[in-house]
Design brief:
Elements lengths: L2 E9 L23 E6 L7 H16 L4 E6 L9 E4 L3 H9 L3 E4 L2 H10 L4 E2 L3 H6 L8 E4 L7 E4 L2 H6 L2 H35 L3 E4 L4 H7 L1 H10 L1 H8 L1
Parallel strand pairs: 1-2, 2-3, 4-5, 4-6, 7-9
Antiparallel strand pairs: 1-8
């Protein structure tokens, strides 16, 4: 019988991880496609982390000779008083409150209109989204604050994982590590090209060399969410 291990994508800065329910018994056969991993990803195929999931798929299937079938489905003071569009997330809201801004939680679909009409003064975003959503049409400046990170995480049921053969466990862990490095490399290579595109479209790029004021301003959020998220998880991200 084919067993399925479901991977759930978790988005968000130190968001609580969600684990899917895996099979109760580990498969014993050695046939191709005996183990199935289903992965959910964000919808944007141009996102570097989404590309990394497909890299993970390729690595795992090649290295297990098809035994595993991976199925992928598609200066802080300057913020004082500014109305900033944020994702509808308590952590995002609190982050910008600590920066002295007025966070305005809005869906992604409302972001362009909010910038165009002045409902907000700015929006936190990745540079790639500014290009893909044509937000350069309604904004003049982009500041590289690096104020937070929204990791794309592959998370799965440890009980099921522990029942898999040791060689497949090793392949999954190694492929996950390499896929993460793949996404980081893509980001590094693509960001400068994207910034050059924004400059050519008339945007002014503010590269902030000293980000210490941002780090200091938002530091209380780690203590605030330490019990809820888990100190060991937060510490792992801060290393």
């Amino acid at each position: 019988m084919k067993k399925t291990l479901v991977f759930l994508l978790v988005l968000g800065l130190f968001s609580t991880m969600v684990f899917a329910q895996g099979g109760k018994e580990a498969p014993a056969a050695d046939a191709k496609g005996q183990y199935v991993i289903k992965m959910g990803t964000p919808s944007n195929p141009e996102d570097n982390c989404v590309k990394a999931f497909f890299e993970f798929e390729k690595l795992v299937e090649e290295r297990t000779n098809g035994r595993v079938d991976v199925q992928v489905f598609h200066s802080a003071a300057d913020f004082n008083g500014m109305k900033i569009r944020v994702m509808e997330s308590p952590i995002m809201t609190r982050t910008f409150e600590l920066l002295g801004a007025v966070p305005v939680p809005l869906s992604a679909a409302e972001r362009y209109m909010a910038l165009q009409t002045g409902v907000v003064h700015g929006a936190e975003n990745s540079v790639g989204i500014i290009v893909s959503e044509k937000e350069y049409e309604v904004t003049d400046y982009v500041s590289l604050t690096a104020h937070n990170i929204t990791p794309n995480i592959i998370a799965f049921d440890k009980n099921y994982f522990d029942k898999l053969p040791a060689d497949i466990q090793e392949v999954l862990l190694q492929a996950g590590e390499e896929a993460g490095a793949f996404a980081t490399r893509l980001d590094s290579e693509s960001q400068q090209a994207t910034l050059d595109t924004l400059k050519s479209l008339g945007m002014k790029v503010n590269d902030i060399a000293d980000k210490s004021s941002f780090t200091k301003a938002v530091s209380p959020i780690y203590a605030q969410y330490r019990d809820e998220i888990g100190g060991d998880i937060i510490d792992a991200f801060l290393k």
